[in-house]
Amino acid sequence: MTGLRIGWVGLGAMGGPMARVAVEAGFEVTGFDVAADAVATLAAAGGRIAGSPAEAAQTADVLVLMVATPGQAEAVLFGDGGAASALRPGSIVLVMATVGDTAVRSWAERLADSDIAVVDAPVSGGVERAAAGELLVMVAGSEGEIARVRPLLDALAASAPVVGAESGDGQRMKLVNQLLCGVHIVAAAEALSFAEALGLDPRAAWEVVRQGAARSFMLDDRGARMLDEAPPVRSAVDIFVKDMGLVVEAAESAAHEPVLARAARTVFGTARDRGLGRRDDSAVIEIYRKL
Length: 291
Hints:
Helix 8 crosses helix 11. It is globular, with a radius of gyration of 19 Å. The termini are far apart. The chain has 13 helices and eleven strands. The protein is of the alpha/beta class.
């Protein structure tokens, strides 16, 4: 066991594999999730089970938040039975979810009154990289606090660059990442459905174009799932509705016109409105097929 005790809230498609990697690396991990099967999977891997966010936080040196939305994270920290009241002075909240810089700055200010620090460290890379401990983590915080969580970051990430000294800097960098990811998913859907409309075999088109200048991670990863009949849900459409909303909101606040981000947000929003919100985000190709 390492000396760092980890509380973990959020054991979904990304958080579950990440928590299990932490257990395999020797960390004492106590996890909570509203889904019983997610908690059971962590327990089977050697983690401990908490009955609430507060219980996960009670003995934690570091509390990891890997939930889906800013509202969920707010409830985890400050709702009934929330973790903030259970955290000890000197502990760290490691925000690894994509929740936007405004929320993280607010939490950092509120927790500072209790001598609890926030390290802002959203992740990118997908489920397979999460399970392999090969994520990109965009880290922001004070030098000393980052040093304390560095052993955990190194276990979870292939790369964990420091992108800023203040809470919110990591979230802003993640939004740059998500702008590209969201646009690339929609572009892959449009391109592969275009191949279908032209009478081409879309799988053959995918195999060809991914070898040239048009290749991208999202074309490789999501493109493959767009061509499968019932792909597993690794990142839901609802997640990108949320993320592209955060991107557009941040861009507007910075007086930057997010033309492509707006277009991608519209496609994801249309997919959600047509009942695909809980489907894998590769399902956006169905919007093009139905137009």
